[in-house]
Amino acid sequence: MSAGATIRREGVPVVFGVACLLALIALIEVLIRIGMINPFIVPKPTDIVMSFERIIMEENILPRFFLTCGEALMASLMLSVAGISIGVLLHKSRIVRLATETWVAAVASAPLVLMYPLFLVIFGRSAWTIIMIAFVSALPPVILKTLEGLSGTRPVLINVGRSFKLTPSQLYWKILFPSALPTIFVGVRLGMIFALINIVGVEFLINFGGLGQLVNELAERYDLPGTYAAICFVILVSVLFFISTERIERWLRPGT
Amino acid sequence: MPAADPILVVENIVKRFETQDGVLTAVDDVSFNVVPGEFLSVIGPSGCGKSTLFNVIGGLMGDYDGRVTVGGETVRGPHASIGMIFQEESTFPWRNVIDNVAFPLEIAGMGRAERIERGRHFINLVGLNGFERRYPAELSGGMRQRVSMARTLASEPKILLMDEPFAALDEQTRLLLGDKVLQIQQDLKQTTLLITHNLTEAVQLSDRILVMTYRPGKLKRLVEIKLPRPRTSEIVSSDDFGRYVAQIWSDLREEATKGLKDDEARRGGEKSS
């Protein structure tokens, strides 16, 4: 198959995906215009597009966007380092794993965001309060997925390592860890979703700044097109982080 | 085979497992020798302890009675002189072909340029030149097994220990890969011990075949295969080949029947309980 044909074949799903999205937006526009959707609940997509310039120029959205991105980046780095390290530790120590695994799983479903007053007392009204709440809330999936990935390494790969007389450290870094990476990255992505939800939510709650605060302000002013435009920037943060993790995963673990 | 000093000596191996139904003897008093350059196969029905024997000889399983020695040295764990090829697909999916094959050289501390060059030699040996930069996901099952074989050969083991390496492949691929194994074994004069349940594979490749009984796995008979070398898969159509297959099958049939009945009885028991 020629290179051009390959590009065309790979480009088709992307074009189809974008076309579906545009078709959905057009459908919503039509349904609002013919009165089937109340414009006071969902603004017209064309109004949202028109409001982008206004929220960029008047609402200082770029510094807010970078603040939210920075908080998300810091929380993601912290939860990746801590979550993977704790997961490795739990995998190495059976007793610690049996003693704590259920608790970690329980914390994963606990609404830790409600503890924001405690974090406010500890870290003050700063970005660190937001980062720490996001970090703590998003940590359990990274730990659990790291543990799952390491435990799920195929025994035959471990036997290959043993047959080549690998040291325990070589066995870990040359076989167990790369084998577990796809599952660990599922955990990191899940963690980042949890983190971003908490970041935007707490920005909203403590009125600190960032995109969460802007969404709240615009909603309170009943500027619905502006609110939806600000939400688009939150989605952009999420998309940027998702693409970045995908690239990092492909770099760390090629061939998948 | 000529009477040379054995390179591998397996003496009175007994391996028992604790099960819910009591102690199960998987391998019972198995002894044999392999001389340098020899291709020896161990054949037996499913459940005769072949894979247990593979793990014991490879040093992956301890806590057994008896002794395994390689070149006079007792095996107490994985041994540098024994290279293992496993039944299941065992390439590293995150490494391309060249990096998979060069893995043991990397572990040995060889520099990248040198190990890539050495790796290419073994890739050529298994006939995968041109696929160096491909990842296992892009290869067929037979090609992936050849990558595993090249990786094990790259560690230059004195003894190649294979556990049904072509079990998951179709018959035609299996015969063709058998040719490749024969060619490599003859070129390198590689001492090889093959664990298998496949009759044609065993006769096609071996100098001697050890037939094992069904549980507990004991040695039932030793058959010397006096087919001419060098061989190819064309040998399967010869009369002598057919006679060897028939001879070994007459020994195996009784054992395979016992295994089948035992399996049926166990499943019947599970159903009624």
Structure description:
Chain A is mainly alpha-helical. Chain A has 2 domains: 1-42, no CATH class; 43-252, Orthogonal Bundle (MetI-like fold). In chain A, 83% of the residues lie in helices and 0% in strands. Chain A has helices at 3-33, 45-58, 61-92, 94-108, 116-123, 127-151, 155-163, 168-206, 210-220, 224-252. In chain A, helix 5 crosses helix 6 and helix 9 runs antiparallel to helix 10 (224-252). Chain B is of the alpha/beta class. Chain B has 2 domains: 1-81 and 157-239 and 253-273, P-loop containing nucleotide triphosphate hydrolases (Rossmann fold); 90-156, no CATH class. Helix content of chain B is 38%, strand content 23%. Chain B has a 6-stranded mixed beta sheet with strand order 6-7-8-3-9-10, with helices on both faces. In chain B, a hairpin with a 2-residue loop joins strand 1 and strand 2. In chain B, helix 4 crosses helix 5 (141-154) and helix 7 runs antiparallel to helix 8 (239-272). The N and C termini of chain B lie far apart (52 Å). In chain B, 41% of the residues are buried. The interface between A and B is medium-sized, with 20 and 25 residues.
